[in-house]
Hints:
- The chain has helices at about 5-60, 95-105, 120-125, 145-160, 210-285; strands spanning about 75-85, 110-115, 130-135, 165-175, 180-190.
- By secondary structure, it is of the alpha/beta class.
Amino acid sequence: MPSLRDIKRRIKSVKNTQQITKAMKMVSAAKLKRAQDEIIAARPYAEKMLSLISSLAAKTPSESHPLLRAASGENPKTAVIFITSDRGLCGSFNAVLLRTVERFLREAEYGVNLYLIGKRGIEHFKRRDIEVVKSRPYGSARPKYGHAVEIAHNVINSYLGGEVNEVRIIYSEFKSALAQRPVVQKLLPITPEKLAEAEEFQVEMLFEPSKDEVLSSLLPKYVEVQVFRALLESSASEHGARMTAMDSASKNASSMIGGLTLKYNRLRQAAITKELMEIIGGAEALKG
């Protein structure tokens, strides 16, 4: 049975932990606000870029650009950009992503080359028999477009060089502080979007200076924008998950402190009662 000193020490320890979880919640809440503003601002551009490229691809022969036509090779492979966080203490954020990528690997028809972003993913695949082409930590700073450009160019070069036949990206899409959704998105080859059957009119497109030059400029930019959006979504999701996890941890700490305090008071009362009984028993003995 724990002594009063042990329970008092445990209460102090839980209170110290609660101070840390409350501070981490406040920091994540502040970062989440910035990350949420950034993703809200970036989403319309990324979605419009996706719609534009899909529309162009639907009206353009796939042979007009290598990023539009399906790559072929003797040993087909899929490049997977997998984004996790560097740190833990964010609930099931990383666990859900790891289950998603593991399921994708089990169901993959071809071999997989991994491009890992985030220490949690790097640590998970450190001892796995899967080819990791590149890996880098996510970083504590806000995502930069330059990082997305670097990642996009790596996978584009692998695709154009025939090393992989398709490129996919797995990340966590931000819904709210309480909800994040794992996403497996196909980046390459770019497949045309099915045009609506009920279109009222068809728009004739004129390309300046030429169709090939426009596509050559837009298609790599499309991959860069989609990777940057994934980084922003993942950043907002991580901060939302950590804020929720730390809020839950703080509430659990309060509940634990309450239970320990009640136990401490009961033991203290029992000890006082025992001392009084001993005093009364001793007094009675002296009377006899």
